[in-house]
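Researcher: We're teaching a course module on how sequence relates to structure. For the next exercise, students receive a sequence and then see the predicted structure as tokens, so they can try to spot secondary structure elements on their own. Here is the exercise chain.
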Amino acid sequence: MMLNLLRGILSLILLSMIVLTAVAIRESSLMAAGTELWNDAWFRLTLADAYFGFLIVYLWVAYKERTLWSRIAWFLLFMTMGNMAVAAYILIQLSRVRHGNLAESLLLRDA
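Model: And here is the predicted structure for the students to work with:
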């Protein structure tokens, strides 16, 4: 039951982020918005907070993933796609969960 709840929540987050990104792309340019917002200290703080969060999650991914190429690919995806990539990564990990201890299967590297 918990596994299905996590899958549902992460799927909703991923879908929401895709839709919100598509709407934002249609409404304005990322570069124009960034130029306009950069002078706001709260914007810079929010941006730093988001990227530090991506980096924290990436440290777990770097531990879990065995190959350098996989680690590099996920780093690039996290830094460019943000929480869409994080949600996708966790959904992939949830699809690989073995029956038994959900936390252990999800968080620890395969033996």
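Model: If you want an answer key for the exercise: The longest helix spans residues 2-27. Helices lie at 2-27, 30-37, 41-64, 68-81, 83-95, 102-107.
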